[in-house]
Design a protein that fits this description.
single chain; alpha+beta; L-fuculose-1-phosphate Aldolase; 8 helices; globular
Length: 234
């Protein structure tokens, strides 16, 4: 993928996140590693919404969380991204957001159960980061998030938000939506009482089926087409 294509994917991810109402005003951010240059990443700029990312205002940062290119301001929570990239060479995209149901669920301190298809995507463990509710404005706190994430797909930041990762931005974006859906479903189920779950064999099979790389790309591309249709109608 070229640098131009990567920047376009970052823009599209922002449009999808905004479309699903996961933006929380101008807060939250998404990033992608630069192709062929794992020590740098493109990132949504400070003071702009997810739907306002452009090639001109996106920020280029290094793994120390320093801005090294772009016209926009860098987010103060850049260290979520830089420290995860340092810790996880397999990760090429990071999203930090404050989805309503995921934040509400994080306040319960409970584990996400495999009671829905979206939740099964995280059946291999969804950890918590609970060192602070504050903004992640230091490398030390960023490292804390990265350590809590471990080798998982996402981490619940208790009473704050979530950080979701992927080998591609398509994966990270679709997982963010699935995580919010999973938390919404479990909160609803908890109000009535959660019954028996399916056995581990069925859960493992479904996890494999819904977390294949093509599933992320297919659904990401669908959402891009959907947003473009809506923009054309409006």
């Amino acid at each position: 993928m070229t640098a131009h294509q990567t920047q376009q994917r970052l823009i599209e991810a922002g449009l999808i996140i905004d479309h699903y109402g996961l933006g929380d005003l101008t807060r939250g951010h998404v990033s992608i590693r630069v192709p062929g240059d794992p020590d740098h990443f493109y990132m949504k700029p400070h003071s702009f919404g997810f739907d306002e990312i452009t090639p001109e205002n996106m920020v280029l940062c290094n793994l120390d969380g320093e801005k090294v290119g772009g016209t926009g301001r860098k987010h103060s929570e850049v260290y979520i991204h830089s420290e995860i990239y340092k810790s996880r060479p397999d990760v090429n995209s990071v999203i930090h957001a404050h989805p309503t149901y995921a934040v509400a669920f994080s306040a319960t301190g409970k584990n996400l159960q495999p009671i829905s298809q979206p939740s099964v995507a995280f059946a291999d463990v969804l950890p918590y980061f609970d060192e602070a509710i504050d903004l992640i404005r230091t490398p030390e706190l960023g490292l804390g998030v990265a350590n809590s994430l471990g080798q998982c797909k996402a981490v619940l930041m208790r009473n704050h938000g979530v950080s979701v990762v992927g080998s591609t931005v398509e994966e990270a974006t679709i997982l963010l939506i699935m995580l919010e859906n999973a938390c919404q479903i479990q909160l609803a189920a908890m109000s009535a009482g959660v019954g028996e779950t399916f056995d581990a064999v069925q859960i493992k099979k479904l996890h494999h089926d819904i977390t294949r790389p093509e599933q992320y790309t297919i659904n990401f591309d669908y959402l891009v087409r959907k947003i473009k249709r809506l923009q054309h109608i409006n």
